[in-house]
């Protein structure tokens, strides 16, 4: 049986480093991979990422870069110097931006995997129509995933609800990271498209991003262990 800890990424969507450090210490060896997003990075900066890496943790830097190609490439080089394992760009930035990001990562010493964010899991079809995107969510996810993979990105961020279709369409040669993971019976919060850990793994996800179900749990350690067991059952 595979070690399910390798597939679980705990999202440190917390207000400050003090709270994040306390949670990392509490979770201990039960979690080996953490996501650092906009909230924590804005508060603590690169030093917190370096601290996690120095302590033997893997880091998914989720800043969703979306800018002109030159700016994004420079940001990728800076992120790579932190020795993060995964990082994100918005696929909607277009082919030139995506290619610049992929090339910057490939030319770095640490060579992090560039993940293209397709459609945020908080959005549904009505939300897409509101911003002028026609078709269903799956159509837009497929369109952006194709663009990202054609321009050299190493992976995709998408809901596990689209995972089966993505694997059928593009195969298994890319990394698929799925947010919006909620244990069976858990609260959905502000997510529109959610999937359980077991179903997400069976659908073809490589990594599951789990935030509030663990960080807000009365016993984060037991919740993390439960999710790891669910991942392992699906393997």
Write the layout of secondary structure elements.
Layout: E1 8-11, H1 17-27, E2 33-37, H2 38-44, H3 46-54, E3 58-65, H4 69-81, E4 86-90, H5 95-107, E5 113-117, H6 125-130, H7 137-150, E6 155-157, H8 163-170, E7 175-178, H9 197-203, E8 207-210, H10 212-215, H11 220-234
Parallel strand pairs: 1-2, 1-8, 2-3, 3-4, 4-5, 5-6, 6-7, 7-8
How would you sum up this structure, described in words?
The protein is α/β, with parallel strands linked by helices and 235 residues long. The chain has a single domain, classed as TIM Barrel (Alpha-Beta Barrel). Helix content is 46%, strand content 16%. The chain contains eleven helices and eight strands. The chain has helices spanning 17-27, 38-44, 46-54, 69-81, 95-107, 125-130, 137-150, 163-170, 197-203, 212-215, 220-234, and strands at 8-11, 33-37, 58-65, 86-90, 113-117, 155-157, 175-178, 207-210. Strands 1-2-3-4-5-6-7-8 form an eight-stranded parallel beta barrel, surrounded by seven helices. Strand 6, helix 8 (163-170) and strand 7 (175-178) form a beta-alpha-beta unit. Helix 7 packs across helix 8 (163-170) and helix 9 runs parallel beside helix 11. It is globular and about 40 Å long. The model has no long low-confidence stretch (mean pLDDT 93).
Short characterization:
The chain has 235 residues and is α/β, with parallel strands linked by helices. It has helices at 17-27, 38-44, 46-54, 69-81, 95-107, 125-130, 137-150, 163-170, 197-203, 212-215, 220-234, and strands at 8-11, 33-37, 58-65, 86-90, 113-117, 155-157, 175-178, 207-210.
